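Changelog-adjacent note: as of this version, every example in the card shows the full chain rather than a window. The one below runs 213 residues end to end.
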Amino acid sequence: MSMISEDLQHLLLKYCEPESELLQQIDRETNLKVLMPRMLSGHYQGRVLSMLSKMVGPKRILEIGTFTGYATLCLAEGLTPDGILYTLDINTELEDMVRKNFAQSKYNNQINYILGDATSTVNAIDEVFDLVFIDADKKNNGTYYDLVFERIKPGGLVIVDNVLWSGKVLGNQQDKDTQNIITFNDKIAKDDRVEKLILPVRDGIFIIRKKII
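Full-length structure tokens:
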């Protein structure tokens, strides 16, 4: 999924913060036991998410797409002492693994793990968010964005993963998934309510900041 060389990836890891033992364990277990382990954010992207979260200092975080909880724990590192992170996922098969991972973390009591269709469960959360991370089914990126936008504080961040789609967004022959991602990227580019940029981190992450009016 990464668009940079393996040597450069190793160099980047040399100069960033190390993973915790728990994050290393989640990475190993995900790769050993879970289908499509490449969906895990991994060391470098995890440090990017952690840094962004710490820069925001969020009191409320929403994550759409938990997977095995790696990115969740990275985002939680920036929470205020009284902060809460809501993470939504539809995959009940991973529930035991995810709850075990969270239970081993010092952020366990600050994480609210909710199973179900996010297009429904997000509406049951009565919160305003400082930071939102969208990393679920790509066809619904625009739907999730629209659902949460009015509940994001001015100056808050929306981070969306996989927006470069292994470089397929540059191709002439684009499948449906790629077309969906391009449609979402174009939607954000035209949204004058936000400031935006794409970081070519791993599979591309869109950093979207809601303007302060």
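Structural remarks: Strands lie at 60-64, 84-89, 111-115, 129-134, 152-161, 194-199, 205-210.
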